[in-house]
Amino acid sequence: MSYQSGAYSGTSSGRARGRIVGVPKKCWCGELVVEKISKPDPNPYCRYYRCGFAATERLVNDNHAFKWVDEALVNEVETLRSCLDRLEEDVREITADKIMLENMVIEKIQKKMEREVFERVEETLAATKSDVKKMMLVVIVGCMVIVGCSKLVGLVWSIVGCCMDINNEFGHMIFVVCVLVIVVSVKDNSSLVIVVWFLRQF
């Protein structure tokens, strides 16, 4: 796209010192850039940016700032798109780091919880084993006591039955000896009362 103003003609590609990206703010000479509208026939009523000094002095074939507005806006859009791409990439990286950090924290919490649960289960199992051993010991001792008592009771009743069946002095003598042995071995008063009751029966 070309630009002409009076005796001046040119393009925006080679007007200023260096390439101007986006909307120009200042010219290289330090003057502010102003917005103008073209009037010649080649590009009628097209807006452009021009160095204020060059526009005031109506300079021709100079290297002061000049750029078409539509070109500047295209550059701005491209610049914004590039910035947006970089921002999206940064967001993806931050999101990936965040997800990785969250996974690490969750994994640490899971390991800690599993370790605590495992320790509690081991403690519970140890306590349960101890209780089971105690109960088994109590059951075994109780069974032995019951068996012993049943045998002792059976032996006593057998002796008593034999003594009752024998109607002579020898049988009574055996019974009295057994009673005396029981009296000597038993120290409880209630047991002595039971023994005396048996003696009275004879």
From TrEMBL:
Keyword Coiled coil applies: yes
Coiled coil (UniProt feature): 77-104
PROSITE patterns: ZF_GRF (PS51999)
GO molecular function term, any single one: zinc ion binding
Annotated signal peptide: none
Residue span, GRF-type domain: 27-72
Protein keywords: Coiled coil, Membrane, Metal-binding, Transmembrane, Transmembrane helix, Zinc, Zinc-finger
Segments crossing the lipid bilayer: 137-160, 172-199
Keyword Transmembrane annotated: yes
Protein name in the entry: GRF-type domain-containing protein
Protein species of origin: Microthlaspi erraticum
